[in-house]
Amino acid sequence: MAAARNRQEVSAWRPCVPGVTEVFHAHFTEYAYPMHVHEAWTLLIVDDGAVRYDLERHEHGTPHDTVTLLPPHVPHNGSPATPHGFRKRVLYLDSSRLGDDLIGRAVDSPDLRDPVLRRRVGQLHTALVRPGDELEADSRLTLIGDRLRAHLRPEAVTDVPRRDPALARRLRELLDERVVRGLALDEATGLLHAHPAHLVRSFSTAYGIAPHQYLMSRRVDRARRLLLEGRSPAEVATATGFYDQSHLTRHFRKLVGVPPGRYRGSAR
User: Fold this and answer.
1) What does the pLDDT look like over 80-116, one tens digit per residue?
2) What CATH number belongs to 2-152?
3) What angle do CA 41, 97, 58 make, to 5 degrees?
4) Rounded CA gap, 194 and 184, in Å?
5) Domain 219-265: which topology?
6) Strands of the 76-80 sheet, one edge to the other
7) CA distances in angstroms from 123 to 117, 173, 220, listed in the order given
8) Rounded distance, CA 101 to CA 215, Å?
9) CB atoms within 10 A of CB 172
10) Cβ–Cβ < 8 Å for 153, 105
């Protein structure tokens, strides 16, 4: 009974996404954090319950519709604000994602009521859980970073989405060349000499689909052809650039409606 009252469930890992130092998922019922600091930015969402915390001698709270951004090097604590505790998902980001010039603004306004931002952070965590979806995670995190900066420094925001069909076409050609090998966002921005957020937005505006969705669509198309040739799903996953068979299955089912094995078995 005591164990049930004082539940502690945690999961932590470091994904292969630039700028993310750690992903941390936790469910605590009674645990309270003492005052402490992090070297990284802390991007926090609460999925169940609520957390109360002190930052710079001011009390704050994180209901489930809020995104909380805690700056590095600033002491804070945390404890459950509801009887049944809280369930949270946290990203720790280095200064390549958010600069130290934003620390003061984040101290003043750490809790952001923004449904679009809250949804995007949740989608990012979903992508981070799944090996092989690093391009999706990196793209989502890039747009999240832009939205966070817009909250913290609204007077400097001039990035109105604009069309750039030439840049979008060059990215599509690059993705077509790298269907199996894959493409990291930082590699694409270096080759195309474009800001990553502008690159993602330009492609999505031009083609109505995000770069990671386009890449997975091309891979699934190749997988369909190989499956109809009689090759096994495991072989096809390797041949088309998926992380493993389960990665292939997840995207194949999403785009085709059935798993690869069933699709292969339907061939005439």
Assistant:
1) 998 899 999 999 999 999 999 999 999 999 999 999 9
2) 2.60.120.10
3) 30
4) 14
5) Arc Repressor Mutant, subunit A (1.10.10)
6) 33-36, 76-80, 51-55, 58-62
7) 10, 27, 21
8) 35
9) 17
10) yes
